[in-house]
Amino acid sequence: MRNTMLALAAVTLAACQSAPEAPQSAAPEPALGPATIPSQPGLDPAVVSPGSAVMDQSVTITPPAKGIPTKYAAFSGMWAGRLEGMYEGKLAVQTISSKGGVTVTYAWGILGDNNPGEAAGEGRIVGTTLKLGRLPNGADVSFMMLPDATLAATYTLAGQTYTGVFIRQ
Questions:
Q1: Calpha distance 115→36 (Å, rounded)
Q2: Which stretch is the leader sequence (predicted)?
């Protein structure tokens, strides 16, 4: 009986004490593979739902120079939309050259079996269509400027095509 009381007292004391902090490993974290999507630090999970398209906050837009044709300059800026009304996408057209070359960052949310991600790259504006270089996940993405200054998006991945409308943010 006495041993039972001592054991109960020891368990009670242990439950009242704070757990020690886990020791920090001095070993460096392994490098991320090309298919690994790093977590987005500093995001409030109550504001961003899991599977959302998340654009890195450090992405910047350089306003088009005076010599850039108006039809190209119209693409400059941050855009957001939904493919098939449910799959989020975000586009940052960061720079535009006088010949229609662009630098962009594109972020996508969950899309079929594809996890959220972000890719920086280049593209080209021809006429009223901006075509991005192939994304690391294998997707081909293009945006056509509509008369109402929105973008008609087409996203093709693994033989499946998704469409939607993006608006300037």
A1: 10
A2: 1-21
